[in-house]
């Protein structure tokens, strides 16, 4: 008897796409040298992830530690990891890690960077991309990485340096836009100050940023925050985002009682980890089974174990709460409003390519369309690709080669950012 295995299905779809996509003045930190370190481990136990100094006195993007690691990526010659300073959604200093993958054959001329945000989609710190990208860590996110890393191998083969942050920060604040956006930008600040990994790099080095699903969420927030603060020194030429979560409220309601409820649970847990007022609101208003649910979701549940966990699927998330309509209260309304992409009324300062399956069963398609139209109405440049009939996982796989090509187009000055909706 044949038993349907969703993990195998995802692997076959996305790995097939990944294979096809293959064809497709120095800052102070510049004096850092490569440091010999012990074998990397998981974020929960590896001392490299901890910083004992005064974070407040450090600038965002400051390099706090560095090491060489052995990459798992086939097309990477070497890899380096940097511990760097960032800040979370409420401005608390944090230290997180960015991984720099060095292509086997760098493109001729000055270096160019693909800033790739992977869909971590987890509130377990050991699911951080950095652990899965380094050989020998036994990362619980290794299988997730193998099936959701569109853009990684193809961009390396195209000769680009690939920079991947742990964009949820050290506390795994999943789907918290300000945390993810700042961590992404600060990771790029650190990478552009580390010529040991990227010879000739500086703040003028061209960068294309991109991601799908949870990775698109981090990317889009980085784009929104790009023109503010120190990150405006970076030379980001454009972004490519697919299956983009725009509105956390509508996404949560869309996921509720469905097959992929696990993502909604992660989203709520991420807000709890980011905002003390959300934690203080939610904690006393959970039934015991709700407390157990949110504890379980933090127990090494990486992306695939979130997406395809029978214990989460088709449940009513609100049934775990003592309140009939927890989203109607001022505290969650305030924080959800702060996490609405484009909710501050700002206009994107970089060109954008968006793509989304019209039958997306995880992230609402219409939210993405509305966002693109809103940005274009403000004078931003957003080109939107709609794919009829495509669901969320299918879209990621079928557009894998396009994603690599679009990132290449951004860095070669050929990208079409014209508004078309």
TrEMBL record:
<keyword id="KW-0442">Lipid degradation</keyword>
<keyword id="KW-0443">Lipid metabolism</keyword>
<keyword id="KW-0732">Signal</keyword>
<comment type="similarity">
    <text>Belongs to the AB hydrolase superfamily. Lipase family.</text>
</comment>
<protein>
    <recommendedName>
        <fullName>triacylglycerol lipase</fullName>
        <ecNumber>3.1.1.3</ecNumber>
    </recommendedName>
</protein>
<dbReference type="GO" id="GO:0016042">
    <property type="term" value="P:lipid catabolic process"/>
</dbReference>
<dbReference type="GO" id="GO:0005576">
    <property type="term" value="C:extracellular region"/>
</dbReference>
<dbReference type="InterPro" id="IPR029058">
    <property type="entry name" value="AB_hydrolase_fold"/>
</dbReference>
<feature type="signal peptide">
    <location>
        <begin position="1"/>
        <end position="25"/>
    </location>
</feature>
<dbReference type="InterPro" id="IPR005152">
    <property type="entry name" value="Lipase_secreted"/>
</dbReference>
<keyword id="KW-0964">Secreted</keyword>
<dbReference type="Pfam" id="PF03583">
    <property type="entry name" value="LIP"/>
</dbReference>
<keyword id="KW-0378">Hydrolase</keyword>
<dbReference type="GO" id="GO:0004806">
    <property type="term" value="F:triacylglycerol lipase activity"/>
</dbReference>
